[in-house]
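Hi L.,

As promised, mannan endo-1,4-beta-mannosidase:
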Amino acid sequence: MSYTKRSCISGVFLLFLAVACEANSGFIGVKDSHFELNGSPFLFNGFNSYWLMHVAADPTERYKVSEVLKDASVAGLSVCRTWAFSDGGDRALQISPGVYHERVFQGLDFVIAEAKKYGVRLILSFVNQWNDFGGKAQYVWWARNAGAQISNDDEFYTHPTLKKYLKNHIEKVVTRLNSITKVAYKDDPTIMAWELTNEPRDQADYSGKTVNVSLNSKMASFVKSLDNKHLLEVGMEGFYGDSIPQRKSVNPGYQVGTDFISNHLINEIDFATIHAYTDQWVSGQSDEAQLVWMEKWITSHWEDARNILKKPLVLAEFGKSSRGQGSRDIFMSSVYRNVYNLAKEGGTMAGSLVWQLMAHGMENYDDGYCIVLAQNPSTTQIISDQAHVMTALAHSFN
């Protein structure tokens, strides 16, 4: 490649970075059931990459984080959801209650710094429902080791020792001073929102009341007492509970101890989320039947977000496994079309986050939903097209 061509490409990339940096100025807020950025409506297409901090904890692997954030940004993706937890185990952030691994925290510092560089906003989750990266089971194990009498993992939501552990972790993350940017997390607009828990479930109380009182209400107030600049969401999958019994028919045949309506009506919760995995939740049905269910799932929650909650709605996880039946591209195109059509009705349907983007050479992380943008041109085009039409739609609302 000639020097002239290299200079030209370098200049374009620097301009791209300048635009991306400008896009990251200002905190995202909520007004009249939609997101706003600097006084203008904010709609987006985005992605999940839960592994960013875990990989960035090893400085020799940080190029993978940079690759994904850069490629996503070039494709127009503007929001990424990722973990701000790793409790016990391999590359633990929280080694034991209140004890943190500085090198892993510096990995999260790097993730935030790189996201800012490429104009990508972050949704950071505080703790996991599941055992991956520790989760509530690790918190229970710690508490039992300290002498607490705990009968099951669902006491995570009610036991004072466990709530204390979680509050300590939340405070540690929210008040962290980034070692690279020298900006406290609570003051950094690169972070779009905090998430209380990844997919909270309580098998001991299917009504959703325990999660509502113990997790959402009290923890939400605690987060806002530390940081009132950032948005806050629960991390819910969207299962309906007891507050509107007839809505339970929308569930995929079961409940999980949460209530989409009551869990999101709490004042401190700024927007609603749903997740959707048709190949797991309504498995055994045809592709067409799964898409029909998916559209009903999204539309029902949009109606409730707009009419009852009066808060923005984000499809925060969805995907189609490459190991299952049917076409991923057809599935994603259908979902994106549904999201866009609902977003046109005023912006309450605010965006979606596909599960999940990976970098080259991460085959051992692949759960069947992995997408490497550079290796999947047709899927990348669909993802990028959605990003651009959502951005154009936001501009049309001005």
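The CA atoms of residues 321 and 369 lie 5 Å apart.

Thanks again for sending the construct details.

K.
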